[in-house]
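Incident log, structure service

09:12 report received: a user says their structure output differs between two submissions of the same chain.
09:20 pulled the input from the user's history:
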Amino acid sequence: MTDAIKILMVDDEEQFRATTKKLLNRRGFETIVAGSGEEAIEKLDQKPDVVILDIKMPGMDGHQALREIKERIPDLPVIMLTGHGAEPSAKESLKKGAYDYLLKPCDMDLLTAKITEAAQHGKKKRIPEESTVEAVMVPIEDYTTLRGNQTIGEAIEKLKKSFVSQLSTSRIMETGHRSVLVFDEKGKVMGILAITDLLQAIMPAYLSAPKPSMADSIQYSPMFWKGMFKREVKVLVRKKVEAVMSPAPLAIDAGSNLMEAAYLMVMNRERRLVVVKSGQVVGVLREQDLFFEMERILREVES
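09:34 re-ran on a clean worker, output below:
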């Protein structure tokens, strides 16, 4: 983003602050951190666009900090973070001027969408009628990638890591992509490997071969299946990704309209699109990215 949204992240847990700052900065935000309500008040002179404020903190808690922030900068939007057990307290903060609240752990996509929405509201900017693909995509540096000549075993390890939260505090979650974008040695997208490709790859050919006419009614017994899954997985992990992957997703320009992206997905039964800009791959647009944009638009209508 050209004008980075400046966030003041306030939480008393040091590891949470550091890791969240890293994740937000990777998504194009500028993040200031504070370890207490008192420190947050001191850092208001850095003019943040949005404050992310934990409710439960020693010393000046979130409610006290919110009151002080609103006295000093009434129009500064504040998003409260709270655990499930403290939801009534979070709802009470809305009456005291908080912009919104999110329950922990919360998804990074939802948090970043809420931050953008709050910043636009706080600055009283007109929300564009249509976001572009680039505005909601996952940047390529944040997507799981590998080379076509790597093994399925390596691909499985990368896929597994994409599902693991990048934070150890359990306060926030970075959702897995459920697929790996595959590049050739020249850096060109050659395919995509999804979990469905792995499942398809472990199916022995004879399972889909036509049965003899007299065997059409034969049902496989429990003994027939025993050990098959483990055996086929052991064979699969040694294969190359390029032998198992699906063709590369359709490409769409970064400046395209989201309805065009939705049309391509629906008409071609694609769950994700490769996003290009000036001939270079810059990101991946997933179906859930369009879903979060739908949710944002609904909130805009209701407000």
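09:41 both user submissions now match this output. Likely a transient worker issue. Closing.
09:42 reviewer note: The longest strand covers residues 280-286. Residues 165-173 have pLDDT under 50 and may be disordered.
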